[in-house]
Amino acid sequence: MAVDTLVAGIVMVYLLGMLGIGIWATQKTKSTADFLIAGKRFGIWAVAFSAFASIMSGFGFIGGPGLFYQGGYAFLWIAIVAPLAFPVSWFVLGKKMRLMAEVREILTIPDAVYARYDSQAARGLTAVSVLLGVISYLAVQLKAMGFVLSEILGTSQFVALAIAVGVITVYTVGGGMIAGVTTDLVQGVVMVIGSIIVFGLALDYGGGLSQMSRDIAVNDPQMAGAFGSFPVMLTLCWYFLFTVGNSGQPHMAHKLYMIRDVKLLKWGAPIAGLSYFASSLMMLGIGISVRASVETGAIEALQSADNAAPYFLTNFTPSLLAGVVFAAALGAIMSTSDAFINIGAANLARDIPESLGIHFDTDRQELWAHRIASATIIAGSLFLAYYAEILVGLLGVVGWALFASALVPLLGIGLNWDGATKEGAVASAFTALVLNIGLAIAGEFYGFSLPNSVVIGAFTLVVASIVMIVVSFATSSVSREQIASDVHSVITS
């Protein structure tokens, strides 16, 4: 697209603001607890906005309109219904995760797994699963950042990526989660406001949802239906995976440690859920309005579905608003990226070493190890994004599924059922890891797919949960005696 000076200026001001927050947060980060869980200093608004912003990601702001454009109303089963995932996550994990951080020194998701099951094997398998998902997701996010920023600034993707990575490195490596949550709060507010305004413009442009639906139905009635042009089972699997599986997303669950006052947890779900709903409106408005325009012949068909959002913003919105929304899109990518960087660094510098019996002598050593690990994660993801695209594509297929099937059974079930055993946890985590990667390899290289359009992630989540329950019942004679009294009090709370 042609470079708009006002749009580029707004985005650059936004990036400078993020850089300023990073420098400020670096000065505030004095310990490993500050770096990983922000010293448990944030209020519910900051944590809830951070949780929703990191889940939204570039997939929502850029990919979402494209999926509405491509498949019609099928994507409603994620974009609009997915806010239900936040109440589910808060109910299943919210209080439990925060209380675990009170009774034990817990800074990461695998820390909670170890405290619950007293098993380094379960901790190590969890850390490896999360790390694989983090690196693949981060590689995709960084590549998306370079693409979006290069389109805005009119530079090469290399220059754009260097600018974006420079900013995110400063505030992530230096400021950790203090910077991450603060920037997420700003980014989340921008997403919500920008989405609501663009949704209104899209409705006005297309003549309202009813008119746009009629325009689409003239040539393709199925696309205007409840399941769009995608198979019914596929959309139902999406619904299941994104609603139940959200509880297993580490970039969401990790934020639950950071709330200052446990009593305020109950407000987090409606804040995060409604914010996600509001920011999803833009996906619906742009995707359906552009599709309706194509069906009526008002515009030519797009070369790529992912061009739906950039096309609408550059052609049908004022430059000031387009700049704000492009900043929001960039912010969505950056909010997910900084969460993944911090989580991956924790896996690399803390969880995997401790599962192998390696410990740091001082907190200062561990803090610097996390900063070095953050830089390593960024460098490794950049390398994978541009020099190992097959691996990124393979892991990207299982990213969300690997998170969900590894963590929902171990924490979603384990923190609510004292009958879950360490043997069940290890068997479930191993099953999730092997099954997800195995099915992804079979699909990528041998064309394998599950029958009736069943999504691999939904299948592996169900299987891993069944393994957890069955193996736990088989080894239940010693389960409750293995649980420490302080951890048991959290489970029964």
UniProtKB/TrEMBL annotation:
Record localization: Cell membrane
MF-aspect GO terms: symporter activity
Q: Which Gene Ontology terms of cellular component type are present?
A: plasma membrane
Highest taxon, organism lineage: Archaea
Q: Which InterPro entries match?
A: Na/Glc_symporter_sf, Na/solute_symporter, Sodium:Solute_Symporter
Q: Recite the UniProt keywords alphabetically.
A: Cell membrane, Ion transport, Membrane, Sodium, Sodium transport, Symport, Transmembrane, Transmembrane helix, Transport
Q: Name one GO biological process term.
A: sodium ion transport
Pfam families listed in its UniProt record: SSF
Q: How does it sit in the membrane?
A: Multi-pass membrane protein
Parts of the chain that traverse the membrane: 6-26, 42-62, 74-93, 121-140, 152-173, 185-203, 223-244, 264-288, 308-333, 368-388, 394-413, 425-448, 454-474
> Which Gene3D superfamilies does this chain map to?
Sodium/glucose cotransporter
Family label: Belongs to the sodium:solute symporter (SSF) (TC 2.A.21) family.
What name goes with this protein?
Sodium/proline symporter
Instruction: Please report the organism this UniProt entry assigns to the protein.
Output: Halorussus gelatinilyticus
